[in-house]
Amino acid sequence: MTTTVPGWVVATALACLSGRLHRPASPWVSSAPAKGLLLSGLTSAPRANMGSYGRGQGRSKDRYLKAAFDAMRDARQAVPAWVMPLSAVTDTIPPQHNTFDVVIVDEASQASIDNLFLLWLAQRVIVVGDEKQCAPGANYRNNDSDAVQESLDRHLADMPMNFRNGFLPSSNLYELLASRFSDVVRLSEHFRCMPEIIGGSSEQFYDKRLIPLRQFGADRLDPLRVVYVDGAAEEGQKATLRNQVEANTIIDHVQKIIDDPVCRNKSIGIIALQGGRQTHTLEKLLNDRFDPADIRRRRIRVGQPPDFQGDERDIILLSMVVTKARRALTSRTEPRRCNVAASRARDQLWLFTFVPATSLNPTGLRHSLPS
């Protein structure tokens, strides 16, 4: 599990590295004798008050929260850049219009419409994202219900109907803004994956626009590998779908990777393309078989495609899960899941499947995976 570093800690490091420090107007801090001391005092005050605020349940919670915001107001003038996750913004930044000169939202396709307040915090906003990757709320069951439509019509009555539909529960900040501004900058350079790995995503999802720039030598791992699992059988359906034989085969292969000196120190990720239950099956097998120290050292992670959004591993093992003929995956959500799953591996991508490519729907997304 990744530990979130508080925003003021990261900001302090940025300020020290950049050497840029603006003296705040507050008389309480303007007499600081040195930059290092000034930053220490400014950033420790909000941290101390937020520590006292705790979970926001004590009798003096409002007092500590106000003190933290006051300290942040002084600190903001001293630190040129603040870096924090979305979840920390409302607890850290005073709710004031144009608090910053510029707000940069990274992974904006992960920001739901609940985060529209970010546009209020600065006169200029830079939004970075990818509409071809997983987004929050994409599986929201009541996305187009009568209640949702009635709420949009009531609260956004002055807005043209074609704009209103951009504020559905499944919407995200990147798509909302990209549809309204024509000067979208499309990046084409790709540095993470081996060319063979990212080539499939480039062709399937990006109109062959991606230019792989990953450098490699002659001793690299074979980028794409497929394992056909004999005797695999699926159980359950939808969220309960799992494939025990395939899961066993994948965990056996994790052992081979760990034992292979060529793969020394390579990080490992395991992605189940379908079925939350398959993820739980893989996690249990992994924890039963391997020492927790080895799991941490190799950064072994198990999850579904959305869990790996924004993440990467040296080696990724994909679990197809299904063994029976299926309709082609053509919904709006599935292309994003397949794209994320197929583009998390830096060095090597493995696909474990019972179904040969010739048995898959040639127009479906599963057919586009390594074969």
Would you give an account of this structure?
There is one protein chain. The two termini are 32 Å apart. The chain is built from twelve helices and nine strands. Residues 1-46, 52-56 and 361-367 have low confidence and may be disordered. The strands form three sheets. A five-stranded parallel β-sheet has the order 5-9-8-6-7, covered by helices on one side. A two-stranded parallel sheet has the order 1-2. The protein has a two-stranded parallel sheet with strand order 3-4. The longest helix is centred in the first third of the chain and has 19 residues, at 35-53. 36% of the residues lie in helices and 12% in strands. With 371 residues, the chain is of the alpha/beta class. Helix 2 (35-53) packs antiparallel against helix 3 and helix 9 (244-259) packs across helix 10 (276-289).
- Biggest sheet architecture: 5 strands, parallel
Distance N to C terminus = 32 Å
Helix/strand structural class: alpha/beta
Q: How many alpha or pi helices?
A: 12
Give me the Rg, rounded.
24 Å
Shape call: globular
Topology, number of strands: 9
Helix content: 25-40%
Strand content: 5-15%
Query: What integer is the average pLDDT?
Result: 78
Question: How are the strands of the largest sheet arranged?
Answer: 5-9-8-6-7
N-to-C SSE string, H for helix and E for strand: HHHHEEHHHEHEEHEHHEEHE
Uncertain stretches of 5 or more adjacent residues: 1-46, 52-56, 361-367
Q: How is the quaternary structure best described?
A: single chain
Task: Summarize the SSE layout with pairings.
Layout: H1 7-18, H2 35-53, H3 61-78, H4 86-92, E1 100-105, E2 122-127, H5 146-155, H6 161-164, H7 173-178, E3 189-190, H8 195-205, E4 211-212, E5 224-228, H9 244-259, E6 268-272, H10 276-289, H11 292-297, E7 301-303, E8 313-319, H12 333-342, E9 345-353
Parallel strand pairs: 1-2, 3-4, 5-9, 6-7, 6-8, 8-9
Helix pairs in contact: 1-2, 2-3, 9-10
